[in-house]
Amino acid sequence: MKHKSSFEKVISHLSFWVLIAIIFAVLLGYFSPSLAIQTEWMGKGFVDLIKLFIGPIIFLTIVTGIVGMGNLKKVGRIGLKAVIYFEIVTTFALLIGIAFAHFFEPGKINKTGLPVQDASKYERGGHADFSWLQFVKDNFTLQVLIVAIISGIVLSLSKHNGKVMLYLGIASKWVFKALKYVMYLAPVGAFGGMAFTVGKFGIKTLIPLGKLMLTMYGTMIVFIFIVLGTILRYYKLSIWKFLSAIKEELLIVLATSSSESALPSLMNKLEKMGCSKPVVGLVVPTGYSFNLDGTSIYLSMAIIFLAQLYNVELSVFEMLSIIGILMVTSKGAAGVTGSGFIILASTLTAIHRIPLEGLAFLLAIDKFMSEARAITNIIGNGVATLVISKSENEFVHPLNPV
Predict the structure, then answer these.
(1) Residue 313: helix, strand or coil by DSSP?
(2) What is the predicted pLDDT for the residue at 128?
(3) Which end of the chain is more exposed for a tag (fewer CB within 10 A), N or C?
(4) Distance from C-alpha of 280 to C-alpha of 296, rounded to nearest angstrom
(5) Within the chain, which residues score under 50 in pLDDT?
(6) C-alpha pair distances (Å), 287 with each of 141, 324, 341
(7) In Å, how far are 205, 245, 251, 272, 397 from 402, measured between CA atoms?
(8) What are the counts of helices (DSSP H) followed by strands (DSSP E) for the chain?
(9) How many other C-beta atoms are found inside a 10 Å radius of the C-beta of residue 367?
(10) Are 354 and 303 in contact (CB under 8 A)?
(11) What is the pLDDT of residues 56-90, one digit of tens each?
(12) How far is Cα 279 from Cα 61, in angstroms, rounded to an integer?
C-alpha cells in the first residue's frame, strides 16, 4: 500500500482548504471591498444549509441516547450536572471578563474620532424585561432539545423501544452521511463569510478600538488555556489535543462568526473522541443555550469598557448587581440576532449609570469580536461534554483520544 507524503496528508485535510479560503477572502476584502461584499450569499448559504441539520441531529442523538441508556434517573442526573456546571463556569467567565477589563482598562481612550453607528433599535429593546418564555420561543435549538427529551422518555417506556432504536440508528447514519458531504462546502462558506466581513467593515475599523479588541481576545485565550485547560487536566485530558481534534470546526466558526455552523460536526467529533451519545446529545445542545462562555466574557467586559469610556466609577454594589443581572440575561444571548446588544442595553438601563449611546461604539467592531465569542463558546461546550462524560464514566473507547 502506498503511503501518503506529508504534503498529501496536509492538502487532504478540510482544515487546510478552509484556511486557504480565509486567506484569499481577507485579501479580496482588503483589495476589492465592493466585490467581496457580493460574496455574502456564500457564507450565509453555507450556515443556513448547516442549520438544516441541527434539528434532526439533536433530536436523533438525544432520543437514541435516552432510549439506549434506559435509565431515566441517570438522564436526569446528567442534565442537572450539566446545568450546574454551566452556571459555575459562565459565572467565572463573567468575573474574569470584569477582572481583565479593570486591569487593562481598554476604555481609557479618547472617544474623539471613534466610528459611531446607530444603536437606537437596541436601546428600545433594552427597556423590555427579560422573558424566559420569549427566550424559549425564539430559541429553536432549545425547542428541539425539549421535544427530544420528552420523546426519548416516552419511547424509553415503550415495549417497542428495540425497533425504535433500529430505525433511529438508520436515520442517524444517513443524516451524518449527508452532513459529511455538505461539509465539503466549508471552504466556500468560509470564503464568503470572511470576504464579506472584511469588505464591508474594513480592517481599518479595528484601529481606534484596537485596545478593546486585544484585551478581549487575550482574555478569551487565557480563559481557554488556563481555566478550561485546568478543568480538563483535572480529568487527565489535554486542551491542546482537544483543540487539534476540532480544528476544522474552529476554522469554520472563525470564518462564519457562527458557532451553530459547527454544532452538528462538533457532536459527531465528540462521539468519536469517546463521549457517549446520551451525554453528547444532552450537553451540547443545552450548552448552546446556557453555556456561552465567550458571550459572558464579552458582555461583562463591554460594560466595564463603556464605564471607563464615560469615566463612570462603579461601586461594589453596582458591580455585584451587574454580575447578578448578567448571570440571568446572558443565558438569553443565543439564537436571536442582535440579542447581545439587547442584553447590554437592558443591563445599562437597570444600573442607570452608563449612557446607552455607548452601544454605538461597540457596533463598529462587533463583527470582528463575534468570531472570538463564537470560538470560545464552541470550545467551552466541547470541554463541558468531555468533563461530564468523564465524571459520569460515560467515556467509551475513543477513536481520537484527548
Answers:
(1) coil
(2) 47
(3) N
(4) 22
(5) 1, 124-128, 335-337
(6) 10, 20, 20
(7) 38, 8, 19, 11, 11
(8) 21, 0
(9) 15
(10) yes
(11) 887 887 788 777 766 778 888 888 898 899 999 99
(12) 9
Collapsing DSSP to helix, strand or coil, 395 comes out as strand
CA distances from 242 to 11, 250, 318, 388 (A): 21, 11, 38, 15
Q: Cell match 464552541: residue?
A: 378
The full length of the chain comes to 402
| DSSP letter (8 states) at residue 2 | P
CB distance 186 to 262 below 8 Å: no
Sign of CA dihedral 214, 334, 284, 400: negative
Our CA angle for 345, 348, 352, nearest 5°, is: 135
Distance separating alpha carbons of residues 299 and 309, to the nearest angstrom: 15
**Could you give the CA distance from residue 356 to residue 349 in angstroms, rounded to a whole number?**
8
pLDDT of residue 93: 94
Cell 451519545 appears where? 277
C-alpha cell at 108: 481609557
Domains, the chain: 6-391 (1.10.3860.10)
Residue 379 — φ and ψ, nearest 5°? -65, -45
| Residue closest to 101 by CA, chosen among 277, 271, 258, 219 | 219
Q: Which amino acid is at 305?
A: F
* The three grid cell numbers given for residue 327, joined into one nine-digit string: 448571570
User: Which residue in 267, 224, 249 sits closest to 56, CA to CA?
Assistant: 267
